[in-house]
Known about the structure:
The structure holds two protein chains of two kinds. By secondary structure, chain A is α/β, with parallel strands linked by helices. In chain A, the strands form six sheets. In chain A, strands 1-2-3-4-8-9 form a six-stranded mixed sheet, with helices on both faces. In chain A, helix 8 crosses helix 9 and helix 15 (435-446) packs antiparallel against helix 21 (614-625). The longest helix of chain A is centred in the C-terminal third of the chain and has 23 residues, at 673-695. The mean pLDDT of chain A is 87. Helix content of chain B is 31%, strand content 22%. By secondary structure, chain B is an alpha+beta fold. The longest helix of chain B has 14 residues, at 3-16. Chains A and B meet through helix 11, helix 19, strand 22 and helix 20 of A and helix 1, strand 1, helix 2 and helix 3 of B.
Amino acid sequence: MDFVPTLPTFASDVTAQTxxxxxxxxxxxxxxxxxxxxxxxxxxxTPQPDLTIVTRNYHPIIIKCSDIQIDQLxxxxxxxxTVADGGxxxxxxxxxxxxxxxxxxxxxxxxxxxxxxxxxxxxxILALPLMDRHExxxxxxxxxxxxxxxxxxxxxxxxxxxxxxxxxxxLVQSVVQxxxxxxxxxxxxxxxxxxxxxDALKILENNIALLDMEQQRxxxxxxxxxxxxxxxxxxxxxxLLALKAANIHRQFPxxxxxxxxxxxxxxxxxxxxxSKFYRHFSGVEPDFDKMHIRHxxxxxxxxxxxxxxxxxxxxPALDFLSAKARDREDPFRACCAELLMTPISxxxxxxxxxxxxxxxxEFFRVIFALAKGTGPKSIYFAYDELQxxxxxxxxxxxxxxxxxxxxxxxxxxxxxxxxxxxxxxVLHKSYRxxxxxxxxxxxxxxxxxxxxxxxxxxxxxxxxxxIGYDLVSGTLTTGEQVTIERxxxxxxxxIGEIFPGKxxxxxxxxxxxxxxxxxxxxxxxxxxxxxxxxPEQIVVISLDSxxxxxxxxxxxxxxxxxxxxxxxxxxxxxxxxxxxxxxITLATVYRAKGNExxxxxxxxxxxxxxYVEEIRNRNRAFTSISRSKxxxxxxxIGAQMAAAEKEISEIRKRLPRFEFEFPDMGKIRKLxxxxxxxxxxxxxxxxxxxxxxxxxxxxxIRKLxxxxxxQLKSKLLEATDDAE
Amino acid sequence: MTLxxxxxxxxxxxxxxxxxxxxxxxxxxxxxxxxxNAEIVMLPEEITKAETFELSRRRQxxxxxxxxxxxxxxxxxxxxxxxxxxxxxxxxxxxxEYEDDVGNVRPMEDADANLPARWVRFDYRETGLGRVLHxxxxxxxxxxPGTRFAVGGLLTPKQFIEFIVAHFYPDIYENVRxxxxxxxxxxxxxxxxxxxxxxxxxxxxxxxxxxxxxxxSMSQRVREC
Lengths: 724, 225
C-alpha cells in the first residue's frame, strides 16, 4: 500500500496523520494507494477529501478528517453544524454532507466507465479522532458514516470489501489518477492472439493508461519549492507535467501558473493535455487567464515567456535574426541575457518547465525572476538527461539558476519537503520503447561494442540507475569487465509478447542505395497491405542528414509509384505534420525528435561510422531508434553497414545485459565537440599531404627511412582495409 | 492533351524533379485534376509569408518545394475531353531551415512571417469573348495588384514547373538544366513536345497586343525549320 501526500501540510496535519495510521496498519500489504488532499473532484464548491483510499479489494473510500472536539460542538442539524467560535456559535456546512458530496462527485467519475458501473460504490466517512463517541451520541444522537477510532477501521473495511477484476482495478486507478483521458480504450474486445501486427498495435494502444507510483507522485504532489523531474524520453515527462499543472490549477484556482517549453509544436499537445486532465475532475475548461501555456520565446503572432516579459518591462524584444547576430550558437541565450539586464517583475505563483535540458541557464534566471515569493519558489522542471548521450552530466541547479549575493544557491534540491515530498524525482520506467529496442539504442549510441571501444560512457552507477539500468557485476573503473542489466519492469512495453511472430529489430545490408530504398518501399507496402499497419504508424528516418533530402525524395517517388502517399515534414511546425492520416512520414533525425511511431525504418545507417561526425551520428542513431514503440528496421550499404550489423549482433547476444570492458573516461571525455573540430582538420591535412605525397617520385619515397616507410605502408593498408 | 496524359505528366514531372519537388498530392476528381482536400480560395493579392505558410501547413498544394516548403497548386478542368479551365499557382513560403546540434528549429519569427510573399498564378477559362483586358489565358504576379498579363497558350505541368524553378530557384535550374553536358535544347524541346492546343485568343487580337507566349506547337515548327 502506497501513500502520496500531495501537499506539504500533511506534515503538520496531526488529525489526518492519526487517521491514516489507523488505516495503514489494516491495509498493509494491500495492492492500492492512498492520497492526502487528492483528488479535487466536482464543481468549484465541492470540498476536498483529506484522505482517499483506493485498493484492489475494497470500494474506494473518501475520508474527511475533523479535529472538532466535543466541547466545541453546539448543535447538529440536517444540513449544518454549529460549533463554538469564541463566544458565538459558528454555523458550518455539515461535514457529513461535505464528505458525501465528494463521494457523489467521485462516483460519477467511476460510473462513466462501463466496466465499473454497478461494480463500485464510493464510500464516505467522516473521521472524528478527537471526539468522544459516547458523549457525542448522548448529546446529538447516533449518526452514520463516522469513524471514531482505530477499531472502527476494521468494521468499516469489512463492510467495504469488494475484490476487483484485474482490468477493473487498472481502470479504477486510471480514473483516480486522471490518466483515463489518455486511454484509447474502446471497450471492444480484440482478437487474441492478434492475427496481424496491426491488431497487435491496436491491443497495445487499447491498454488502459496507468501511471506508476513514481509518476503518480510526480503528477499529484505540489511541493512548496523547486522540484526536478528527470527521465529519459518516453518516461512520460510532458504528460506528468501537464497533469501536475491541471492539479495545481484545481487545488489553487486563483494562482497564476506558467507552463513553458522549447519545441514550438508542443503548444497544442500541452494545451490539450492540460484541458483534458482538468476537465476530467472538474467538468469544465481551465481558466486560461490563470493558466498560461507559453512557448519560451514567442513573438507578435504568438505569446511567449520572453516576448511577454519584454512587453511587461517595456523593453524591445529581439527577433530571431538580431538575436542570432548576437549569439550565433544560441540566439535565445542572447535574448534572455539582455532581458536580465532590466529588473523583471514576478508574475507567477507556479512555473512548470518542460524540456528543461534544451534551455540556456539565462532562461532559468528569467524564470526565477518571474516566480513570486521571497523564499523557495515553486518552479518545477522536467529534464531529459540523456537527450544527447554526450551531455550526460546534468547541469546542477546552481549552474542553472545561479546564486544569491552571499553565494548561496538560489535553488537547492537537497533533502526533501515536509510531507514528505521529493525535491528530485527520477522516472526509471521508459514506456515507449520495448526493452530490446531501447537497449540497442543505448548500446549503439554509446558505441559499447564498437571495434575501437565506446565513444561515450555513463561514468557512475547512479547515472546508469537513473536511466533504468542496474550494475550486476564489476566496478566502473578503467579496464574492468562490467555487467549492466536493464530490469524488465523498467521497460513495460510488451509488444514483443503480444505479437511474437516477428523480431522487433532487424538490419538489412545492400550493395547500393537504390536497392536499399526499393527494399524499404516494398517492406512498407507489405506492412500496409499485409500486416495491417496504418500508413501514419510508419516513420522513415534518414541517419545521413547531409543526403537526407535526396534519399527521402527518392523513397517518396518509389512509394508514390506503389500508390502510397507520404509526407516530408516541413521546416516549421514539423511535428504537426507527423503521423498525418493516410501518409507515411519521411523525416530527418531532427524532425523525428520528440515524436514516436510503432514502425520505424532507419535508412543510410551506414553513416553511423563517419570519422568526423561519429559521436553526433551515434547520438542521431540513438534518437532514431528510440522513436519506436514496436518495430525497427535499419538498412544501409557496403562495408560500413556490415560493421553496424556486427556491432548489433554483439549487442543482441547479451541482452538484457551489457557486458563490456569499462573504458578510460579520460579518453572518452576528449571525444567531445573539440574532437570533431580536430578530426575535420585531420581530414583536410590528410587530403593535402596525400596529394603532395602523390606528386613525389616513387624513387624518392623509396629513399625514406625504412621504419618510416613501414609505418606509412601499414597506416595506408589499415585505412584501405577500413574503407573496404 | 487529355486528363490521362496530364496525370501521367505529373508523375513524370515529380520523378524528374526528384529532390526539388516533394509531397505529391495530385488526384483525379471526375473531369478535373486537383489535389487532395483542395480548398479553392482566392487569396488576396497582397499576402505575407505567414499566409502562404498556412497553405503549406494546411496541405493546400499539388507539390511542395523541398528547399523551403513553397507550394505549387495545379488544377485543370475538362469538359467532354476538352480543357475548359485551369489554375496554376506558385506561392513562396521561403522559410529557411535553422537547426542547431540538438535539432532546435528556427521559430516562425515575425521577421519572416510579415514579409510579403512572392507568387504567380496562371488562370485560364475558355470564354471565346476575345477580351483585351481580360484574356482567356492570363498571368497574375505578386506586387502588381489587378494586373492581368495576356498569355498565349496554357502551360502543362512540366512547363509550369520548368517556369517556376527557372524564375524562383535559378541556382537549382542552372545546376539541373544548364550544367555542362546537358543538351538544353533537346531537354526543353522534349518538355514542350506535349502541350495544350488552347488559350490562344483570336489571331487578330494576339497579333495586335503584347502577350506572353507559351512554347508549344510553334516551338516544334521552329525546330522543324
